[in-house]
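User
Please review the sequence:
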Amino acid sequence: MRPVARWASPTETAPAFPISSARLVPGFLMAAAALAPPAPAVVMCGIVALIGSREAAPQLLEGLRQLEYRGYDSAGIATVEGGRLHCLRAEGKLVHLTARFEQEGAPGQCGIGHTRWATHGKPEERNAHPHLDGERRLAVVQNGIIENHRSLR
């Protein structure tokens, strides 16, 4: 796993910004922040990410709350602490994910969050992002449709 410090400099006051996956630069966790929400006619998943010096989960949840106007069917977050990945996902509104966080926690100062707009697959927890690899060492969120999903499985 790459060291986090290579991707961004942690700061105490760094907010969780919504980012567009279309603007990501390969090799970087967060290359550009979307400063203004898209036009209301645009419906897409919401993605937030941060690296900081405070617990990430509450900030990720707040970033996802700011994206609630987009509409979604599930939400999730993944955080990293001590080289261990913590992932929480929930079907339905963000209040369900928040309740799960309050019960189970998600320690770490680095993380990603996602609200899913169902274009493929049922609106259920197993389709919520982040998705994990088989060893639970990598968490991925994405916006859009992966057309070759069958061959990737």
